[in-house]
Amino acid sequence: MPTLQNFISPDPEICTEHALFYQAKGAIGFSQSTGRYVLAPGARISFGTYFNLFSLGKWNRSCRLDSLFAEVSGSGKAEIRIVHARPGLSWEVVYCEIAELQDGQPHTVSLQEFAGADTEGALYAEVQALGGEVTLTGGRFFTGDEPEQLPRLAVSITTFKREKEVQNTVARLERFLGQFAYGSQIRVQVVDNGQSAEIAATKNVIPYPNRNLGGAGGFARGLLEAEKDGYTHCLFMDDDASFHMENIARCYTFLALARDPKTALAGAMINNTHKWCMWENGAFFDGSCHPLYNGTDLRNPAEVVQMEFKSARSTPATLYGGWWFFAFPVASVSRHPFPFFVRGDDISFSLANDFRICTLNGVVSFQDDFTEKESPQTLYLDLRNHLIHHLVFDQLERSPLGTARIAIRFMLRSMLRFKYESAEAQLLAWQDVMKGPAFFDENIDMSQRRADIKALMQDEVWQPASGAPAPGRARFSRLPRRLRHYFGLFTLNGHLIPFWKTIGDRMVLDIGERGIVFPAFGGARLTYFNTRGDKAYTVTHSKRHFFSLAWRMAKTLLAFRSSYGGLKAAYRKGYADMASKAYWEKTLDSGQDRAA
User: What does each C-alpha distance from 365 to 97, 178, 217 come to in angstroms?
Assistant: First the structure.
């Protein structure tokens, strides 16, 4: 009987925030080496957690479920409960029985009455030890419904000069596919942009040496190969596979049972800095990226359940899936990736194609802090794609000034924090967009622009923290919050005040404040530290840089407004041409480097 989801446990290689996997009441021990739980007499364990609750509403709405069961494995005398969490109603214990668990004989619970498109909420299991000690070895939710047709899934990984990471990922995937019930229906494609990964071809894995055209070119190659070999679905994912392999198991079964052939699954993202905190459970785009359920405390079962209720009931019109984990049906692809190189290609791919994007609890990737990755180059790339999305897609269309405000906002955020190098890169991005879609074809490998931006970077470069200046005077940054906010806005953070470089504060800020404007207000010299505190860089107030940028920004705005109509028409045609299968076949010459 197909497993919908297995209970999973903390993994030292992925996440050891135990509260994301189980909640304990009483003395409960967990063996990291075996994945077993031991419950002292009277102890209760609940699996109503981010990784282990069953999102009933999502499965019922999206999948054909005519039958549903839960299963608990272990040994010892226990009370077993199944709880139904219902949106807007009191929660119910829908099953409660005493069982004598025995090794090799799972205790099965029929949940037939909960299978059906009209049933919402979430289900989870609780176990209480009675009499003596109880050992739990696992559990799952499963169905008696076999898929009408098994998907053929191509797992496409793009990598560049991360040999160790991708080798470890491939090894994990090989082990997983060897024991997964549907492993024979899945192939791993490693698109090697650096041509250095040394991945051997096997029954389950095919390496593809590829020209380095960034993530967009790598994933475009992966999609071409999946189409060529008749795969029904494709999964784009990162080369470090920083997630449980259960991600792929849940994803495959969800797609196999999907009612709508357009169903796609977007993995959530958790920041490695705080592995208990949701960063993005799906996101939508409108002027900027808006991560959904950002800040949800995943250690809190009530917050997790509410997130699942809300995300099951509604999704934004411009929802997109990040390519750290995004699975989609190949038949629904009408537009291939646009040659952004990196950044924003995943947004446009979701917007351009007719997918029904879903999220699912526990299908999540752990990523390094995006704030720490911020640089003039990433900000250049971000602004390019933000502007183009608004030029291309009907649902994002704005007036010329409305679209220009995106670039102005980007630049001012940098300038008010004295990140003039970032603002220079952003101005360059705006001007490059104004050159039309041909610019992206001519600069598809980004080599010239990467060199140009690298030459700009003098101050905004991480250096050993031992040379960073210490905090100095702090007067303006100690103003009451509201007063400090308006002071920063109306003075443009001191740029309108004479001698501000002399009288402004000398501040030290941590990584969490790096991407926010307010912490910079009141400062004249800002020193930023990374997450580990071992690297830093310092930026300093400069009226000359600020007003030079402001003048050039104003001139660019005038040119943008006058050329807006023609630019929009050019991008709509150019996007259709360059996000086509034919464009990528010609650009990549996909058959030439194919591995045997």
Answer: 36, 22, 22
- Return the CATH class of domain 3-142: mainly beta
How far apart, in Å, do the first and last CA atoms of the chain sit?
Answer: 36
> In whole angstroms, what is the distance from residue 10 CA to residue 32 CA?
7
CA–CA gap between residue 243 and residue 424 (Å, rounded): 37
Q: What does residue 320 show for φ and ψ, rounded to 5 degrees?
A: -140, 160
pLDDT of residue 594: 43
Task: Specify the residue for token string 């104003």.
Answer: 554
Q: In which residue ranges of the chain is CATH 2.60.120 found?
A: 3-142
User: pLDDT by residue (tens digit) across 520-553?
Assistant: 999 999 999 988 888 999 999 999 999 999 999 9
The segments of the chain whose pLDDT lies below 70 read: 590-596
Contact yes or no for 339/578 (Cβ under 8 A): yes
Determine the Cα–Cα distance for residues 70 and 49; give it in Å rounded to an integer: 16
- Nearby residues of 360 by Cβ (< 8 Å), 6 or more positions away: 55, 58, 250, 251, 254, 265
Spell out the CATH class of 153-367. alpha beta
Q: Which of 35, 3, 9, 2 is nearest to 362 (CA)?
A: 9
Residue spans in the chain of domains classed CATH 3.90.550.60: 153-367
Tokens, residue 42: 């009277």
Give the helix ranges, DSSP H, for 416-525: 420-433, 438-442, 447-456, 481-490, 500-503
pTM for this one? 0.94
